[in-house]
Amino acid sequence: MGIPSLNQNIPQRYDVADTDLASIDGVLSTTRSVRLRLDFDRHVDNETILDCIDLAEQGPGGGNQSSRRWLVIRDPKVKTKLAELYYQSAGQWMVSARDKLAGTDHRNKSVMNSAAHLAENIQNVPALVIPCIWGRHDDSKKPGLFDSVLQSAWSFCLAARARGLATAWTTAILTAEDEMREILDIPMGVTPVAMLPLAYSKGTAFNSLPKRRAAEVTYYDSWGRTWENRDDESPRNLSEGPGAICEIEIDAPPEIVWKFVSDINISAEHSEEFQGAEWASGYTKPELGAKFIGTNKHKHIGEWQTTSTITEFEDNVLFGWAVGDNEETAGARWRWEIDELHGKRTRLRHTLRLGPGASGLTPAIESMPDKEELIISRRQEEHLSNMRKCLSAIKVAAES
Ligand SMILES: Cc1cc2nc3c(=O)[nH]c(=O)nc-3n(C[C@H](O)[C@H](O)[C@H](O)COP(=O)(O)O)c2cc1C
To answer: Which residue from 213, 298, 341, 388 has the highest number of Cβ atoms inside 10 Å of its Cβ?
Structure first.
């Protein structure tokens, strides 16, 4: 990557114009929690570890103070003590979860297989690296200090990956922080934030993972306002795919929440605009391709009806529809998504994307093209307000 040899006490100048961006993006997108492909037999020298720490120390720190400390565990006896503690804290549970999920097609099967492998072998890694910070999160009143360590710890993982090493971000052992402190003699005013098993990886090629696209998790200018493909140069317009996202966490399992969101009339009780829906002729229930007719009312537009088509459907997980016949010509696209959180809780997510086809907005924009940005912004606001009311009501109903 063209990084000069490291002695970070001598300031070095690095021009990003000389950067091979593809290599950097490659490291950023493939630094994974590696467990099954850790090479326990290949030695990792201290110089390489210190190079990674030197790079990590370039991370920002609150108050520009040097408050991070790094524990590198090499002694097999100390590693074994930590391995035992890790096993008691969570490893045991990971191993029994792996055994329970073996042979099933549960979505956590492979992560549990990998987590259990680490839990059974953590004492065999060449080094365990524990990033620490002076300060306590709860009582230091200095969150700036505490929060100055995570970015550096991640830089350490990236620097390691760039050198053919692998890490796994683990925190399970922190539930036994007191015992960990005792084993490692960590003073009370210092907080360990993770334990990073470090080893060369078996093979250096790793895949990036499918994650939510940036446009789905990025809000512009205020919470919940999205743009599919926003061009910053021109005034905002409909072709840039404006939208809205509303989320809420609910103390109820996905099956309960699903009962509400798979009901095409659920929003009618809470939205000031949506009046209700009925199945189009030939359709009786939510399934891919089913159509329903919705009635809407707005103080400036009056009353109108739309026919929608279900375009995404997975029981207890996903329900999406296009206002119109398909996604390509839809006036708007709506989606409910249910994420299961630990402990049978749920995060419910409601998404609206306006366009790409014509909708009620189109005539308003056509008659006042100079007000397109304002019209879109007001529409996002109206939708967000109705979506929020609906989500809050679903939360109350599902939790009771
Ligand atoms: C805050 C945090 C704590 C974690 N703790 C553990 C842990 O104790 N043990 C473990 O095996 N993995 C742990 N992980 C790793 C995740 O399970 C891991 O990110 C997940 O397996 C996805 O893999 P990826 O990093 O390749 O995307 C942790 C991750 C984070 C962000």
So the answer is: 388
